[in-house]
Design a protein that fits this description.
Helix content is 45%, strand content 14%. By secondary structure, it is of the alpha/beta class. A five-stranded mixed β-sheet has the order 5-6-7-10-11, with helices on both faces. It is globular.
């Protein structure tokens, strides 16, 4: 990668049109505000433009992983390193199945990013990128990230940390169903009660599977149900010291419903349901939430804006 990093963004026509008109604006919860002019951005709609890439960062929705893997197999040079910066647990393994010649690394994006339109992307929560790179094949990429003030934590393996992130991401569906900004939803004890039950059930499933999630940043997974169940004033103190969330933050699943796109529910709450089935145990709460999100997907009307009391009733019928 050398001292100068050439970056090509590959995406959808919708984003290309926004960038061509407005350039690219990046903001975050720390009040970082950067604008990149259109002429300084190399944006392509063609996956074939990965052919000269040394590093390929996969950020597509989980349901599109196989399609992207096939394109990488067709166009990328064999020495290209592929990093999966996707939600869920399975995506890096899916990429490895299709890309036996490539080094595929697990990556993790712990923070939330909201598209505010006009090619303005806002990072609304704190957290450092993570990459599993025990053989140090991503050093130039990591250097480029750090030079851009994007800290990266390096691990030998990310599996347990990915499960910890998935536990946190179980709120994506609740947030999407509520229709509220993340901070407002999490400051409502009634929604937190639902999330606490959802995470508690997931922790029980993980225990049956012999999976022990690890500390993620300042968050200790086993304590989440307890913290979420605290009275509002205590929760705000404890949670505020663990994770910074600004008023603009929303879950990506909320955005998927708003745009009429398929969500990643099968790779988040659905992953808990799938693991429970493998272990021969039940997961009625995560199952009910998964069904509610799929109903909202089918309705194509954005978030159903379900109140906490109504959502609690819906998910507890079979619990």
């Amino acid at each position: 990668m050398g001292s100068h990093t050439n970056v090509t963004l590959i995406g959808r026509p919708r984003i290309q049109e926004q960038i061509n008109t407005h350039g690219l604006t990046l903001t975050d919860w720390r009040e970082r505000n950067e604008h990149i002019a259109t002429e300084n951005i190399n944006f392509s709609l063609a996956l074939s433009d990965i052919q000269n890439a040394d590093y390929i960062l996969v950020t597509v929705k989980s349901g599109n992983t196989e399609e992207v893997a096939q394109a990488i197999a067709q166009y990328a040079k064999p020495k290209a390193v592929v990093v999966s910066f996707q939600n869920g647990i399975r995506n890096a393994n899916i990429l490895k199945q299709f890309l036996p010649q490539h080094q595929v690394l697990k990556g993790m994006v712990p923070f939330n990013v909201l598209s505010k339109g006009k090619a303005h992307f806002h990072c609304g929560t704190e957290g450092d990128l993570a990459i599993a790179d025990k053989d140090n094949v991503a050093e130039p990429l990591i250097h480029a990230f750090r030079k851009s003030e994007l800290p990266v934590d390096i691990y030998n393996d990310l599996s347990q940390l990915q499960w910890s992130k998935l536990l946190m991401n179980l709120n994506n569906s609740i947030n999407a169903l509520s229709g509220l900004p993340l901070r407002e939803q999490l400051h409502d004890r009634h929604y937190r009660k639902i999330l606490a039950l959802t995470i508690k059930e997931a922790l029980q499933v993980l225990k049956h599977a012999g999976i022990k999630p690890v500390k993620n940043g300042k968050v200790i997974p086993s304590l989440l149900p307890f913290i979420l169940s605290m009275p509002d004033f205590l929760y705000k103190i404890v949670a505020g010291s663990m994770l910074k969330i600004d008023p603009d933050a929303r879950s990506s699943m909320y955005e998927d419903l708003a745009l009429g796109r398929p969500t990643e529910i099968d790779f988040i709450n659905g992953e808990v349901v799938s693991l429970a089935e493998q272990c021969g145990v039940k997961s009625p709460i995560n199952t009910a939430i998964t069904l509610r999100v799929k109903e909202a997907e089918s309705a194509q009307k954005g978030s159903p804006n379900i109140s906490a009391n109504a959502l609690y009733s819906l998910i507890m019928i079979n619990a």
